[in-house]
Amino acid sequence: MRIDIMTLFPDSVDAMLNVSILGRAQQRGYISIQSHQIRQYTTNRQMQVDDYPYGGGRGAVMQADPLYQCWQHLCDLEGERIHTIYLSPAGTVFRQADAKRLQQNYNKLILVCGHYEGIDQRFIDECVDEEISLGDFVLTGGEIPAMAVADAVCRLVPGVLSDPECFTDESHWDGLLEYPQYSRPEVWHDRRVPPILLSGHHANIAKWRRKQAILRTRNRRPDMYERLDLSSKADRKLLKEIADEEAAQEDNVPLTTE
Protein backbone atom coordinates (compact mmCIF):
# COMPACT_ATOMS: atom_id res chain seq x y z
CA MET A 1 0.00 0.00 0.00
CA ARG A 2 1.36 3.41 -1.02
CA ILE A 3 -0.15 6.67 0.22
CA ASP A 4 0.97 10.09 -1.02
CA ILE A 5 -0.13 13.11 1.01
CA MET A 6 -0.27 16.54 -0.63
CA THR A 7 0.28 19.14 2.09
CA LEU A 8 1.69 22.53 3.03
CA PHE A 9 3.20 21.01 6.18
CA PRO A 10 5.06 17.79 5.26
CA ASP A 11 7.22 17.91 8.40
CA SER A 12 4.14 17.56 10.60
CA VAL A 13 2.90 14.59 8.59
CA ASP A 14 6.30 12.87 8.52
CA ALA A 15 6.81 13.32 12.27
CA MET A 16 3.65 11.34 12.96
CA LEU A 17 3.56 8.68 10.27
CA ASN A 18 7.23 7.66 10.21
CA VAL A 19 7.38 6.40 13.80
CA SER A 20 6.02 3.52 15.88
CA ILE A 21 4.01 0.80 14.12
CA LEU A 22 3.65 2.62 10.80
CA GLY A 23 7.32 3.58 10.80
CA ARG A 24 8.38 -0.04 11.31
CA ALA A 25 5.92 -1.19 8.65
CA GLN A 26 7.49 1.23 6.18
CA GLN A 27 10.98 -0.01 7.03
CA ARG A 28 9.82 -3.58 6.35
CA GLY A 29 8.23 -2.62 3.04
CA TYR A 30 4.58 -3.33 3.87
CA ILE A 31 3.52 0.26 3.27
CA SER A 32 4.92 3.54 1.95
CA ILE A 33 3.67 6.95 3.09
CA GLN A 34 5.19 9.99 1.39
CA SER A 35 4.35 13.65 1.97
CA HIS A 36 4.71 16.26 -0.80
CA GLN A 37 5.08 20.02 -0.37
CA ILE A 38 2.48 21.67 -2.61
CA ARG A 39 4.51 24.91 -2.71
CA GLN A 40 7.19 23.16 -4.76
CA TYR A 41 4.73 22.98 -7.65
CA THR A 42 3.97 26.71 -7.94
CA THR A 43 5.09 28.78 -10.94
CA ASN A 44 5.92 32.02 -9.11
CA ARG A 45 8.91 33.10 -7.07
CA GLN A 46 6.86 33.69 -3.95
CA MET A 47 5.71 30.03 -4.00
CA GLN A 48 2.16 31.35 -3.58
CA VAL A 49 -0.52 28.68 -3.36
CA ASP A 50 -3.58 30.78 -2.39
CA ASP A 51 -5.51 33.86 -3.47
CA TYR A 52 -8.66 35.82 -2.68
CA PRO A 53 -11.94 34.07 -3.42
CA TYR A 54 -14.03 35.17 -6.36
CA GLY A 55 -17.29 36.72 -5.17
CA GLY A 56 -15.69 38.26 -2.10
CA GLY A 57 -15.51 37.08 1.46
CA ARG A 58 -12.88 36.65 4.12
CA GLY A 59 -9.85 34.39 3.90
CA ALA A 60 -8.13 32.82 0.94
CA VAL A 61 -8.63 29.81 -1.28
CA MET A 62 -5.93 27.35 -2.35
CA GLN A 63 -5.39 27.71 -6.08
CA ALA A 64 -6.15 24.90 -8.48
CA ASP A 65 -2.91 24.88 -10.47
CA PRO A 66 -0.32 24.16 -7.74
CA LEU A 67 -2.58 21.36 -6.51
CA TYR A 68 -2.99 20.03 -10.02
CA GLN A 69 0.74 20.12 -10.82
CA CYS A 70 1.53 18.19 -7.63
CA TRP A 71 -1.28 15.69 -8.27
CA GLN A 72 -0.28 15.18 -11.91
CA HIS A 73 3.36 14.61 -10.93
CA LEU A 74 2.32 11.84 -8.54
CA CYS A 75 0.11 10.20 -11.15
CA ASP A 76 2.88 10.43 -13.77
CA LEU A 77 5.33 8.74 -11.40
CA GLU A 78 2.98 5.75 -11.13
CA GLY A 79 1.95 5.85 -14.80
CA GLU A 80 -1.76 5.93 -13.92
CA ARG A 81 -4.48 8.02 -12.37
CA ILE A 82 -4.47 7.37 -8.61
CA HIS A 83 -7.60 7.30 -6.46
CA THR A 84 -7.64 10.73 -4.85
CA ILE A 85 -9.29 11.83 -1.60
CA TYR A 86 -9.78 15.40 -0.46
CA LEU A 87 -10.05 15.78 3.33
CA SER A 88 -12.95 18.18 3.71
CA PRO A 89 -15.53 19.05 6.39
CA ALA A 90 -18.07 18.83 3.56
CA GLY A 91 -17.15 15.22 2.83
CA THR A 92 -18.74 11.94 3.83
CA VAL A 93 -17.97 10.99 7.43
CA PHE A 94 -15.15 8.45 7.56
CA ARG A 95 -15.94 5.11 9.20
CA GLN A 96 -14.16 1.81 9.76
CA ALA A 97 -16.03 0.41 6.74
CA ASP A 98 -14.33 3.07 4.60
CA ALA A 99 -10.91 2.08 5.92
CA LYS A 100 -11.63 -1.54 4.95
CA ARG A 101 -12.95 -0.49 1.53
CA LEU A 102 -9.92 1.64 0.72
CA GLN A 103 -7.45 -1.00 1.89
CA GLN A 104 -9.17 -3.76 -0.06
CA ASN A 105 -9.83 -1.84 -3.29
CA TYR A 106 -6.72 0.32 -3.77
CA ASN A 107 -2.99 -0.21 -3.41
CA LYS A 108 -2.27 3.50 -4.03
CA LEU A 109 -4.00 6.59 -2.67
CA ILE A 110 -3.47 10.35 -2.85
CA LEU A 111 -4.71 12.38 0.13
CA VAL A 112 -5.14 16.13 -0.40
CA CYS A 113 -4.89 18.46 2.61
CA GLY A 114 -6.76 21.73 2.27
CA HIS A 115 -6.22 24.99 4.19
CA TYR A 116 -7.66 28.47 4.59
CA GLU A 117 -11.21 28.61 3.16
CA GLY A 118 -10.67 25.38 1.21
CA ILE A 119 -9.47 24.62 -2.30
CA ASP A 120 -10.59 25.69 -5.75
CA GLN A 121 -13.64 23.63 -6.73
CA ARG A 122 -12.26 23.12 -10.23
CA PHE A 123 -9.43 20.97 -8.88
CA ILE A 124 -11.96 18.92 -6.93
CA ASP A 125 -14.13 18.47 -10.03
CA GLU A 126 -11.21 17.37 -12.19
CA CYS A 127 -8.99 15.36 -9.87
CA VAL A 128 -10.78 14.28 -6.68
CA ASP A 129 -12.62 10.95 -6.53
CA GLU A 130 -14.16 11.34 -3.08
CA GLU A 131 -14.28 13.79 -0.18
CA ILE A 132 -13.90 12.52 3.38
CA SER A 133 -14.58 14.21 6.72
CA LEU A 134 -13.64 13.08 10.23
CA GLY A 135 -16.90 14.42 11.62
CA ASP A 136 -19.13 17.42 12.09
CA PHE A 137 -16.42 19.90 13.03
CA VAL A 138 -13.81 22.05 11.28
CA LEU A 139 -10.02 21.95 11.71
CA THR A 140 -7.39 24.45 10.61
CA GLY A 141 -6.11 22.10 7.92
CA GLY A 142 -6.39 18.66 6.39
CA GLU A 143 -3.23 17.17 7.87
CA ILE A 144 -4.82 15.65 10.97
CA PRO A 145 -7.65 14.02 8.96
CA ALA A 146 -5.16 12.79 6.35
CA MET A 147 -2.98 11.20 9.03
CA ALA A 148 -6.04 9.60 10.63
CA VAL A 149 -7.18 8.11 7.32
CA ALA A 150 -3.67 6.91 6.45
CA ASP A 151 -3.29 5.30 9.87
CA ALA A 152 -6.71 3.62 9.77
CA VAL A 153 -6.11 2.22 6.27
CA CYS A 154 -2.48 1.18 6.66
CA ARG A 155 -2.96 -0.74 9.90
CA LEU A 156 -5.27 -3.11 7.97
CA VAL A 157 -2.54 -4.00 5.45
CA PRO A 158 -1.35 -7.58 6.06
CA GLY A 159 1.90 -7.59 8.02
CA VAL A 160 1.55 -4.13 9.55
CA LEU A 161 0.04 -5.55 12.75
CA SER A 162 1.25 -8.84 14.16
CA ASP A 163 -2.11 -10.61 13.84
CA PRO A 164 -5.48 -9.83 12.18
CA GLU A 165 -7.08 -10.24 15.62
CA CYS A 166 -5.37 -6.97 16.53
CA PHE A 167 -8.03 -5.13 14.53
CA THR A 168 -10.90 -7.62 14.12
CA ASP A 169 -11.54 -7.54 17.89
CA GLU A 170 -11.59 -3.75 18.05
CA SER A 171 -14.37 -1.19 18.05
CA HIS A 172 -16.31 -0.72 14.81
CA TRP A 173 -14.92 -3.77 13.00
CA ASP A 174 -18.22 -5.69 13.18
CA GLY A 175 -20.53 -2.88 14.24
CA LEU A 176 -19.79 -3.13 17.96
CA LEU A 177 -17.73 -1.03 20.31
CA GLU A 178 -14.92 -2.98 21.93
CA TYR A 179 -15.36 -4.56 25.35
CA PRO A 180 -13.44 -3.12 28.36
CA GLN A 181 -9.78 -4.08 28.65
CA TYR A 182 -7.73 -4.71 31.83
CA SER A 183 -4.07 -5.28 32.65
CA ARG A 184 -1.88 -5.81 35.73
CA PRO A 185 -2.10 -5.23 38.64
CA GLU A 186 -5.17 -7.25 39.57
CA VAL A 187 -6.24 -4.56 42.07
CA TRP A 188 -5.67 -0.86 41.45
CA HIS A 189 -7.09 1.89 43.70
CA ASP A 190 -9.40 -0.75 45.21
CA ARG A 191 -10.77 -1.53 41.76
CA ARG A 192 -10.56 -5.21 40.83
CA VAL A 193 -10.29 -6.89 37.46
CA PRO A 194 -13.58 -8.74 36.74
CA PRO A 195 -13.12 -12.29 38.14
CA ILE A 196 -14.21 -13.91 34.86
CA LEU A 197 -11.05 -12.60 33.18
CA LEU A 198 -8.92 -14.44 35.77
CA SER A 199 -10.76 -17.74 35.38
CA GLY A 200 -8.84 -19.09 32.41
CA HIS A 201 -12.16 -20.29 30.94
CA HIS A 202 -11.85 -18.99 27.38
CA ALA A 203 -15.43 -19.70 26.33
CA ASN A 204 -16.85 -17.82 29.31
CA ILE A 205 -14.41 -14.97 28.77
CA ALA A 206 -15.47 -14.69 25.12
CA LYS A 207 -19.13 -14.68 26.18
CA TRP A 208 -18.46 -11.97 28.79
CA ARG A 209 -16.63 -9.83 26.27
CA ARG A 210 -19.43 -10.18 23.73
CA LYS A 211 -21.98 -9.17 26.35
CA GLN A 212 -19.91 -6.15 27.40
CA ALA A 213 -19.49 -5.08 23.78
CA ILE A 214 -23.25 -5.26 23.24
CA LEU A 215 -23.94 -3.28 26.42
CA ARG A 216 -21.33 -0.64 25.63
CA THR A 217 -22.65 -0.18 22.09
CA ARG A 218 -26.25 0.03 23.28
CA ASN A 219 -25.45 2.58 25.97
CA ARG A 220 -22.95 4.75 24.12
CA ARG A 221 -23.92 4.43 20.46
CA PRO A 222 -27.63 3.64 20.09
CA ASP A 223 -27.35 4.53 16.40
CA MET A 224 -24.89 1.65 15.91
CA TYR A 225 -26.89 -0.66 18.16
CA GLU A 226 -30.00 -0.25 16.03
CA ARG A 227 -28.10 -1.60 13.02
CA LEU A 228 -26.73 -4.69 14.79
CA ASP A 229 -27.83 -8.17 13.84
CA LEU A 230 -28.31 -9.93 17.18
CA SER A 231 -30.55 -12.68 15.88
CA SER A 232 -28.21 -15.60 16.52
CA LYS A 233 -29.09 -18.07 19.25
CA ALA A 234 -26.05 -17.05 21.30
CA ASP A 235 -26.85 -13.35 21.05
CA ARG A 236 -30.52 -13.88 21.90
CA LYS A 237 -29.39 -15.71 25.03
CA LEU A 238 -27.07 -12.84 25.93
CA LEU A 239 -29.86 -10.31 25.41
CA LYS A 240 -32.10 -12.31 27.76
CA GLU A 241 -29.33 -12.43 30.38
CA ILE A 242 -28.88 -8.67 30.08
CA ALA A 243 -32.61 -8.08 30.45
CA ASP A 244 -32.81 -10.41 33.46
CA GLU A 245 -29.83 -8.77 35.14
CA GLU A 246 -31.19 -5.28 34.61
CA ALA A 247 -34.63 -6.30 35.88
CA ALA A 248 -33.03 -7.82 38.96
CA GLN A 249 -31.05 -4.64 39.61
CA GLU A 250 -34.22 -2.59 39.45
CA ASP A 251 -35.86 -4.94 41.94
CA ASN A 252 -32.69 -5.19 44.04
CA VAL A 253 -32.68 -8.94 43.60
CA PRO A 254 -29.18 -10.48 43.52
CA LEU A 255 -28.39 -12.74 40.58
CA THR A 256 -25.87 -15.55 40.60
CA THR A 257 -23.25 -15.20 37.88
CA GLU A 258 -20.90 -17.63 36.25
Structural features:
16% strand, 258 residues, two-stranded antiparallel sheet, alpha/beta, five-stranded parallel beta sheet
Please give a structural write-up.
The protein is α/β, with parallel strands linked by helices and 258 residues long. The protein is built from ten helices and nine strands. The strands form three sheets. The protein has a five-stranded parallel β-sheet with strand order 2-1-6-5-7, sandwiched between helices. A hairpin with a 2-residue loop joins β8 (187-188) and β9 (191-192). The chain is elongated, with a radius of gyration of 24 Å. The mean pLDDT is 92.
Strand percentage, roughly?
A: 15-25%
Strand order of the largest sheet: 2-1-6-5-7
Low-pLDDT sequence parts:
none
Q: Structural class of the secondary structure composition?
A: alpha/beta
Shape: elongated
Number of strand elements: 9
Strand count, sense and closure of the main sheet?
Answer: 5 strands, parallel
Radius of gyration: 24 Å
Helix content: 40-55%
Order of helices and strands: EHHEEEHEHEHEHHEEHHH
* Number of discrete helical segments: 10
If you average the pLDDT, what whole number results?
A: 92
Instruction: Give the N-terminus to C-terminus distance in angstroms.
Output: 45 Å
